[in-house]
Amino acid sequence: MNGSPEPRRLRRGWARGRAAGLFGLVGVVLCAAHARPASGQEGDEDPVRQARLTEHLKHGQPEVACEDCSLVVREGYVLLHDPRRKIPLWVAYRLDGRSVRGSVQRAHGFIADPELGPAGATPADYQGSYYALTPLATPASMRRSFQAFSEAHYLSNAAPQRLSFYQRSWSTLEAQIRDWVEIHKQLWVYVGPAFEPDKEPERIGSGVAVPDQFWAVIIREDEEGKPSALGCLIPHQPDAGDFSGWRTTVDKVQAATGIDFLTALPAEEQARVEGAIDVRHWRLTPRPTPPPPSAHLTPRPTAPRPGAAPAPARPTPASQTWASKRLSRGDTMIIGDLRLRLVRVSPGADIPYIELNVISAARGSQTIVLREHDTTFFEGYEITVERVRPNLSPSRTGEGDAYLYIRAPR
Q: Helices (DSSP H) in 129-170: which residue ranges?
């Protein structure tokens, strides 16, 4: 009986089963070793993620009470996303010359963050609103790589701003930060929204909250690594004016937001940095005064000629869902039922901008102003200014080229 084939088959089957069990156990162990904890979960040992947290949050992760918030870690920034408001509570990034002077260009328009799923905003949330989709870690400061520049266009990094507020207040702060990094070589920048307590904020789309204020905390280090900081707290109003009138201490920003900054510093040093401003380190770059919003920074409806029939609607072919085109002043392009004409190209005070005439059957003719990297929505169409090249010759004022990306409604 011991030499019969049946026991041998049983022994071989038992050996195969044992080997399969061992291999399965090894597979489970390997899968567990390579699994990544959720964003912000303790024990995340991914070396790339840890390196990014160390880079962008050198002075400590800002602490704020928020249930169900998600810590999102990207190459160019780190943010804490609030699913109840569908915007970030804060965005932090380290800035250096490479991030500002790079030549990386955009590969796509603004899109929903795939890491957040339904908890995040979508481009549809901004359609039909009077607010501009504004990235807080601005793409102009994310030119270190194609990945960082592309990830700056996730909507987890954006919040709604009034167009006039962005162009007269927020963009001047962004430009000044880029000037400061040329002086200080590197900066650590924290930006975000603030809300009035015990007040339900205005919301757009599927619940994206409109902030009452926007703030910034900028940190520099001297040759010995000793930090100093500047705070800004700007009311989200069209007449807020230049950011320079809203500079303050980090303590004041903490009181308005409930966020504790510089948490990695000893308590004594933290109090010193947050309670004072050394103006010698934060000298302002002289800039021309921006024109008033009524001049060209808000849409200007143009009345149709008396007796003129509205332009016929042009259906968008199924194949024409987007277009990317270079326009010179006076050039026209048509996509779907929109007709766009580039009216003017200007170098601006700090960021070049264009005046674009948009004509549609439903809304007639309007002229809007967009700066480089701005995105707006017009009747469901996403219009992005990818690049602006003004002609700087005094004899050719207003001339130049613009690279536009337009995506039709889906």
A: 146-151, 163-165
Cβ(211)–Cβ(117) below 8 Å: no
Q: Does residue 239 carry a pLDDT above 60?
A: yes
Closest by CA position to 404, among listed 355, 364, 346 = 355
Domains 47-289 and 299-407 share a fold: no
Residue 28: helix, strand or coil by DSSP? helix
Q: Report the alpha-carbon distance of residue 325 to residue 171 in Å, rounded.
A: 25
Confidence label for 107 from pLDDT (cuts 50, 70 and 90)? low
* Tens digits of residue pLDDT in 177-194: 998 998 999 999 999 999
The answer to whether 90 and 101 are in contact (CB under 8 A) is no
Report which residue type is found at 141: S
The Cα 262–Cα 128 span in angstroms is: 39
Q: Identify the pLDDT of residue 55.
A: 95
DSSP class of residue 2 equals: T
Strands 338-346, 353-360: pairing kind:
antiparallel
Q: What are phi and psi of 407, to 5 degrees?
A: -120, 130
47-289 CATH choice from 3.40.570.10, 3.40.50.150, 3.30.930.10, 3.30.420.140: 3.40.570.10
Least confident among 230-234, 379-383, 384-388: 379-383
For the chain, the domains span 47-289, 299-407
Q: Top-level CATH class of 299-407? A: mainly beta
Q: How confident is the model at residue 395 (pLDDT cuts 50, 70, 90)?
A: confident
Range 163-181 burial, b when 16+ CB lie within 10 A, else e: bbbbbbbbbbbbbbbbebb
Query: What pLDDT is stored for residue 173 in this prediction?
Result: 92
Instruction: Give per-residue burial for 264-298: e unless 16+ CB within 10 Å, then b.
Output: ebeeeebebbbeebeeeebeeeeeeebeebeebbb
Kindly list the strands in the beta sheet with 375-378, ordered across the sheet, starting from the edge strand earlier in the chain.
322-328, 400-407, 381-390, 375-378
